[in-house]
Write a structure and sequence with these properties.
The chain is mostly helical and about 110 residues long. The chain is built from 5 helices and no strands.
Length: about 110
């Protein structure tokens, strides 16, 4: 067995805070989608092929998951994961969450007029 030394000075605390925040955001999205689909954690875990405790840890942001696991979970709750070029991320976010009707992109679904 080879002992491993970790230089604590080289650990960037901001990086870990950002990762924690990202894990919690992913978990929040999964929880909302699961609840909207009226599924239990157990049902999602079964559909995704993982244990319920593992799913709970992912949903609460307590644990990271492999990309294939996240894809399986997303599909179980009716979501699809995709990679978006960073330059396009603001446009995609604006499309998904317009702040006001005036901010809605021209190519987004428009509310029906009565």
């Amino acid at each position: 067995m080879i002992p491993i030394q970790i230089n604590c000075q080289s650990i960037d605390p901001q990086r870990y805070q950002m990762e924690d925040r990202t894990l919690k955001e992913i978990g929040d999205h999964l929880r909302r989608a699961r609840q909207a689909a009226r599924l239990t954690q157990e049902q999602v875990a079964d559909l995704a092929g993982i244990s319920r405790p593992r799913y709970r840890d992912i949903e609460t942001g307590a644990a990271a998951a492999r990309a294939t696991t996240l894809i399986n979970i997303a599909r179980a709750v009716g979501l699809e994961m995709m990679l978006v070029p960073q330059a396009m991320a603001p446009a995609v976010a604006a499309l998904l969450h317009p702040e006001t009707e005036d901010d809605r992109p021209a190519f987004s679904p428009q509310p029906e007029e009565r």
